[in-house]
Design a protein that fits this description.
The chain is built from 19 helices and 24 strands. The chain is an alpha+beta fold. Bound molecules: D-xylulose.
Length: 517
């Protein structure tokens, strides 16, 4: 056996995937849901309530409590944790955790008789963590853009983006300069949890680091001028940066209480999207991944380096080397759930019947499902925009309108990345036949589904196997990511969408004006 553990600290929970790299098999999966399992932290759906709908913070101690709870559960399940040869991980991107001077001593001296949250609480210089759903930093984005200009996007792979960590750090400095001054280290969710695992101050990889608007992707170093324009003295508060995940360190003695062998290698963590690209077998060019989760994301390996001329897409480091491109839509599964609930139907109706009862193109009836402020395109005032009586329409018409809009937005905003021969679809939405067919037809490309148990956690486990024992990514992809289903595009529907797409792009561009209701 060659067991490797992948952990994925996502928006709504912490997930684990245990693989046997020698056998090419997934041995076990396990999960903790923040709202359900740790309600005492008050983070339903992983977010702290806030009167301002643009502010989305979480409690970083919740992520630690989840780690203790999950590992304890896996031990109680009798999983062979003592056989694990290495651990890797991924975190929701952009979320940041702020530490004072005490952090370094506390993290290196974790005591097994205590828990993680209790021990690390005094090390926080900011009690809450802004996460990727936050869009409250438009002013800070404008200030950073005014200082740096177009170089911000050509250097960091993205223009100034509200959820990216740079703008969040600037807001922290502006609103509570004393707390900012007391901050000695700013970690992302990924490097924070990796630090805890190694009992040290972990580096960041360029996959997650590129989500900060601070990393220069031309030389993979922090950009001193951009850092200083973001907040004074920021450079020295940032973790060490590395191009691709290597070994971060050895597992802290704290974790032997869960049965792990002392000192096993821990790989440098990455962001959930870069890990997911690995976990979907997206090592080379040719196929793109559509991940239908809390957010919908579209990503692929990118070669050569280039940026989105429209300014919505991003470039991150690829964990296997080189670059990846990504576009993220905030109104993903939450929008699908909203329309399903409001229509009073179940998932089987949503995934199948709704599409059997309505034609491709929905007779030109479109809705932009911006239940929440959207990031692609940038829409700060939530609200649906429709060209028909959406509320009065039949459930199947409303459902098709939402799914088609999501697929057409994915297509419109991924054109800068190039053409792809296939799409690999992952996440909860990949269970729906209607969604898969719509994607195949809108992209005019076959859609493949994967058997994977959570692509980010699987990718993290594959990274651990690569880093810990030199398993090649190509071989790991061949064993862990074979497609299990394939949906071919339907030529007549392809034609319908080909004709619709320019009009839809126009409709979306015009709808970026504030909603009327
Ligand atoms: C990517 C993004 C989201 C989060 C979700 O830029 O903001 O996909 O990574 O966890």
């Amino acid at each position: 056996m060659a067991l490797y553990l992948g952990l994925d600290s996502s928006t709504q929970g912490l997930k684990a995937v245990l693989i046997d790299a020698a056998q090419g098999s997934v041995v076990a999966t396990s999960a903790v849901n923040y709202g359900h399992d740790l309600p005492e932290y008050g983070c339903r759906d992983g977010v702290l309530p806030n009167p301002d709908p643009l502010v989305k913070h979480a409690d970083p101690l919740l992520w630690l409590a989840a780690l203790d709870l999950l590992l304890g559960r896996m031990q109680a399940q009798g999983l062979p944790l003592q056989e694990v040869q290495g651990i890797g991980g991924s975190g929701q991107q952009h979320g940041s955790v702020y530490f004072n001077e005490a952090f370094f001593g506390i993290v290196s001296g974790l005591k097994p008789e205590g828990n993680l949250a209790g021990q690390l609480a005094p090390a926080l210089s900011r009690p809450t963590s802004p996460i990727w759903m936050d869009s409250s930093t438009s002013a800070e984005c404008a200030e950073i853009t005014a200082a740096i200009g177009d170089r911000l996007q050509s250097a960091t792979g993205s223009p100034a983006i509200e959820r990216f960590t740079g703008a969040q750090i600037r807001k922290f400095w502006k609103t509570t300069p004393g707390d900012y001054l007391a901050t000695r280290r700013i970690h992302l969710v990924s490097s924070f949890l990796c630090s805890v695992l190694i009992g040290g101050d972990a580096p960041l990889d360029s996959g997650d680091g590129a989500g900060m608007n601070l990393l220069n992707l031309n030389d993979l170093q922090w950009d001193a001028e951009i850092a200083e324009a973001t907040a004074p003295g920021l450079l020295e508060k940032l973790p060490r940066i590395v191009a691709v995940p290597g070994m971060a360190g050895r597992l802290s003695g704290y974790f032997t209480k869960y049965g792990f062998a002392a000192g096993i290698p821990v790989a440098i963590w990455t962001g959930d999207n870069p890990a997911s690209l690995v976990g979907c077998g997206g090592i080379g060019q040719g196929s793109a991944v559509v991940s239908l989760g809390t957010s919908d994301t579209f990503f692929a390996a990118l070669d050569p380096y280039r940026v989105d001329p429209a300014g919505f897409g991003h470039v991150f480091g690829h964990p296997a080397g080189g670059f990846m491109c990504l576009t993220c839509f905030k109104n993903g599964s939450l929008a699908r759930e909203r329309v399903k609930d409001e229509a009073g139907v179940d998932w089987s109706f949503f995934g199948k019947a709704a599409f059997e009862r309505t034609p491709a193109g929905n007779h030109g009836q479109w809705v932009l499902p911006w239940f929440e402020a959207e990031i692609t395109p940038r829409v700060t005032q939530p609200g649906l925009r429709a060209n028909f009586d959406f509320a009065g329409a039949a459930p199947e018409v409303r459902i098709r309108a939402v799914v088609e809009a999501q697929a057409m937005a994915l297509r419109t905003h991924s054109l800068w990345m190039g053409e792809f021969k296939t799409l690999r679809v992952t996440g909860g939405g990949s269970q729906s036949a209607g969604i898969l067919q719509t994607l195949a037809d809108v992209f005019a490309a076959p859609v493949e589904t994967l058997a994977n148990p959570g692509s980010a956690g699987l990718g993290a486990a594959m990274i651990a196997a690569h880093v810990g024992c030199g398993y090649a990514y190509e071989a790991l992809s061949a064993s862990f990511c074979p497609p299990i289903g394939r949906v071919e595009p339907n030529p007549s529907a392809v034609q319908v969408y080909r004709e619709c797409l320019p009009g839809f792009a126009q409709f979306e561009a015009e709808a970026q004006r504030p909603a009327l209701s």
